[in-house]
Amino acid sequence: MSYLSIYYLFLVIPAVVIIYSIVPKKFRYIFLLLVSFALFFYISKKLIVILFITILTTYISALFINKLEEKKELLLNNANSEEKKEIKNKFKFKKKLLLIIYILINVSFLVAYKYLNFFSINTNLLLKLLHIDYSFKIIRIVAPIGISFWLLTALSYVIDVYNGKVEAEKNPLKVALYISYFATLIEGPFTRYADIKDSMFAGNNVTYDNLCRGYQRIMFGLFKKMVIADRLNILVKIVFDNYIEFSGFSSLLGTIAYTVMLYMEFSGTMDVVIGSSEILGINIKENFRQPFFSKNISEFWTRWHISLGAWFRDYIFYPISLSKPMKKLTISARKKLGNHFGPLISGSIALFVVWFLNGLWHGAGYTFLAFGLFHFLMILLGNIFTPLIIKICNKLNINRENIIYRVFQSIKMAFLVFIGEIFFRADTMQIALGMIKKIFTDWSIRTGEISSLGLDIYDYIALLIGITFVFVISIFKEKNIDVRNEISKKPVAVRWALYYILIFSIFLLGAFGHGYVPVDPMYADF
User: Fold this and answer.
1) Which residue, of 129, 243, 317, 348, has the fewest CB within 10 Å?
2) pLDDT tens column, 123-161
3) DSSP code of 446?
4) How many CB atoms lie within 10 A of CB 433?
5) Closest CA to 155 of 100, 97, 91
6) Cα–Cα distance for residue pair 177/182, rounded to 1 Å
7) Which DSSP category does 519 fall into?
8) CA distance 154 to 54
9) Within 10 A of 146 (CB to CB), how many other CB atoms are there?
10) How far apart are CA 307 and CA 351, in angstroms?
11) What is the pLDDT of residue 488?
């Protein structure tokens, strides 16, 4: 199931919009919940039970945490100063215990469905090395669709209730819709309850403006996928499946093509998700913000898959870096190493955990762990050497805001991202390291190598047109110019001419038919 499939775009969405408009306003969120459950059941069948368990435990845990907080406040109003401290500690322990139990129950599903076999295989290898005659059975496990998305969405809600950022929702159907909303169910983005609750449960009317803007966004996402991602898929598959036969130049080209393909497919999917929700009057935050305009790899990850980065920042990085042991370590290290390197130690420990889990979140495999740890190392080195780079630039009178310097930074950042994505795409560490070695050592292009990459001159022309179009739109967005708003100000004839140009360009330039293999929804597996 893909949000970029004809089935979803031209059957599911129109049917949902029509019925949603007919249903009375106060029952519209219930209709969306039924659609979400139906979609989940259609894909994952009986595994919907896991989703139901998560919804039930999320609803109950948040309510209990809220009740404990209310009871604590009631007791504090009638207590003296000595009793208040005891009451606070008592209820803090109860709330924390409840939160830990909730997290353990739900994370156990994620571990069982995504990582059990990975851990079993590696444990068996360790037992073999230790000459222990025992092995864990490897079983075929099919995970519920989108478990890494809706499970972490549920966790964020309960943690926010625990931290007092939101009040627990008393209506279980609203909690269920928040967790299982059909548009974000399979590939995200992660939403926060505080950000989405007002628009999600309001039952907003489907307006002409929202319908136009939503389908504009959807068509743009479809353009990215069909014109660029599906076409690049041919080249990427050939290079990664046969990397031994190609030079370092082709390996780098395949890596760049994969990174662009990944961006076009995933950001295109997000365009469809946000556009679908926009039609229904549901506000979902952006998940990409022109990542290739970043100056360094750290900034890149604040612009790429924004909701995932924000989740790890708020629920992993901050709790670790602001914990009492880390604060003590920071104070001690600052005295010995100064104000820059002192806080860097505790921050780096938290950063390591974030990127280790980030890699593991994407998949149970050494390539994904390497992907995470590669980015941890690059960001860490950036943090360490930033003061030195600033000093060198000042000494050489290099303006770091100069366009030439910024372009250099972006090229350096992009190259590091390309290398990191090799780990992300490669099936094994041997392939990943083999491709990286070729990129740095083998630039002897073989005869007929470029022509064997699966694309012809018309494909390259279509790619040039498609990528240029997306790049120009990205420049406008980087300058805070809302292209859709600008289009809406044009006369009707001009507006619809532009809409038809976009639609027909998909048909004329889209990679479909014999020889083209559509890109599978990449993030649906996570």
Assistant:
1) 129
2) 888 888 888 888 888 888 889 999 999 999 999 999 999
3) P
4) 15
5) 100
6) 8
7) P
8) 7
9) 25
10) 17
11) 87
DSSP letter string, 485-521: HHHHTS-HHHHHHHHHHHHHHHHHH---STT--PPP-
The pLDDT tens digits of the residues spanning 431-440 come to: 999 999 999 9
CA distance 369 to 349: 16
306: left (phi over 0), alpha (psi -120 to 50) or beta: alpha
Reported confidence tier of residue 524, pLDDT bands at 50, 70, 90: low
Nearest to 163 by CA among 382, 344, 366, 315: 315
Model confidence at 29, pLDDT cuts 50, 70, 90, reads very high
CA distance 442 to 435: 10
Q: What is the pTM of this model?
A: 0.94
Does residue 401 surpass a pLDDT of 70?
yes
List all residues 6 or more positions away from 426 whose beta carbon is below 8 Å from its beta carbon: 240, 367, 432, 435
Cβ atoms of residues 29 and 177 within 8 Å: yes
Amino acid identity for residue 243 in this structure: Y
Confidence class for position 26, pLDDT limits 50, 70, 90: very high
Q: What is the C-alpha separation between 99 and 102, in angstroms, rounded?
A: 5
- Residue 236's nearest CA partner among 392, 415, 435, 69 is 435
Look at the block and give the residue holding tokens 């390197």. Answer: 341
Over residues 77-89, mean pLDDT: 86
| 101-116 pLDDT tens trace | 999 999 999 999 999 9
Structure tokens at 376: 């941890």
The three-state (H, E, C) secondary structure of 165-180, written as one string: CCCCCCCHHHHHHHHH
Predicted confidence at residue 517, as pLDDT, reads 76
The DSSP-derived string for 344-356 is: HHHHHHHHHHHHH
**Residue 135: its pLDDT value, please?**
83
Share of the chain above pLDDT 90, in %: 76
Torsion of CA 45, 22, 12, 14, to 10 degrees: 180
Does the pLDDT value for residue 119 go beyond 90?
A: no
Convert 87-118 to b/e letters by CB count within 10 Å (16 or more is b): beeebeeebeebbeebeeebeebbeebbeebb
Q: How many CB atoms lie within 10 A of CB 79?
A: 14
Q: Give the long-range contacts of residues 6-12, CB within 8 A, separation 24 or more.
A: 8/272, 9/218, 9/222, 9/272, 12/39
Question: Residues 110, 151: contact at Cβ < 8 Å?
Answer: yes
DSSP character for 304?
A: S
Residue labelled with tokens 């599911």: 12
**2 CA to centre of own chain:** 16
Backbone angles phi, psi at 183, to 5 degrees: -70, -30
Between 462 and 136, residue with greater pLDDT: 462
